Amino acid sequence: MAERMSEQSVRSRLRDALNEPSDDDIVGPRARRRIPEMLLGLLLVTSGALGGVLVFQRSNDRTVVVGSARDLQRGTLLTRSDVIAVEVGALPAGAATQAGNAGVLLGQRLLVDLPAGVPISPQVVTPDELLGPSEALIPVALDRGAVPSGLGRGDAVRVVISFPNQGPDAPAPQVLGDVIEVFDITTPDDFGDSIQVTLRANSDIAVDLARAERVQLLKVANQ
After folding, report:
1. Percent of the chain with pLDDT over 70
2. Integer distance in angstroms from the first to the last C-alpha of the chain?
3. Exposed end of the chain (fewer CB within 10 Å): N or C?
4. Please, which residues have CB within 8 angstroms of residue 105's CB and are 6 or more apart in sequence?
C-alpha cells in the first residue's frame, strides 16, 4: 500500500514538473524582448539630441544686415526710407553691411539696380561727391531715339550735338570731349515724347547744349 502511494506521488510530481514552466522559460523571452526596446529608445534619445544641436547651430548662423526697402534703381541716393533690416544666413565677408553700420550707406549712391529685400554690400555704393567748382547739373529734354536703351543714373555718356536744320552748310555733328555723368533720368509713360535727363558736367557744356538743334547721348562702357 505504501509503495503504491509512493509511486503515485512520484508520478504526480513528474506530471507537475512537465506542465510547470521553469524560470528560464519565463525570464528568457522577456529579456530578449527588452534588448531591442532599449536600443530603440537609446537611438531616439540620441537623434533628438543631435537634432537640437543642429537647430541651435542654424539659429546661430542667422544675422541681421541692411537690405533694400523696395526696388531701387541704379544711381539712387540712399536715405533712411530706402533701407530696412534683413535677417539672412551665413554670408561671405563683405557681402553685406551689418545692421549696426547702416549709417555708412546713407548718402551714398547705388551703382546697380537692387530688388526689394536684397542685402546691400559696400561694393555696390559710391560716395555722392559734391559738385566741383566748375560743375553744374544741366537738365535736357531728349527724344526717345537720342537716349540709349537702359540708360540709368550714374551711367557715363558722351554728348553728340548736331544742327540738322541748317541744310548743306550745317556744321558736322560734334562729339563733346568730356565724358559726362547721368545724374538723373526720368522716363515718361507711353504717351510721352521726350525723356528728361540731368547731366552732371562742366558748366561750359551748357552753352553747347543750348545752341545745338539736336542732342544725342552715347553710353560709355566700363566707366
Report:
1. 70
2. 128
3. N
4. 66, 78, 83, 97, 120, 122, 125
Helix (H, G, I), strand (E, B) or coil at 27: helix
> What confidence score (pLDDT) does residue 169 get?
81
What is the model's pLDDT at position 153? 82
Q: Where are the domains of the chain?
A: 23-56, 63-127, 135-219
Within a 13 Å sphere around the CA of 215, how many CA atoms are in the beta-carbon half?
23
Kindly report which listed range (137-146, 170-179, 188-197, 209-218) carries the lowest average pLDDT score: 188-197
| 170 phi/psi in degrees, rounded to 5 | -70, 140
Other C-beta atoms closer than 10 Å to the C-beta of 57 total 9
Say how far apart CA 137 and CA 139 lie, in whole Å.
7
What rounded mean pLDDT belongs to the chain?
77
Domain 63-127 belongs in CATH node 3.90.1210.10: yes
C-alpha cell at 68: 533694400
Q: CA-CA distances (angstroms) from residue 84 to 66, 71, 79, 117, 152?
A: 6, 12, 11, 8, 24
Give residue for cell 558748366. Answer: 203
Q: What share of the chain is helix, strand, coil (3-state, %, to 5)?
A: 40, 30, 35
pLDDT in tens, 107-156: 888 878 899 999 999 888 888 777 778 888 899 999 989 999 889 888 89
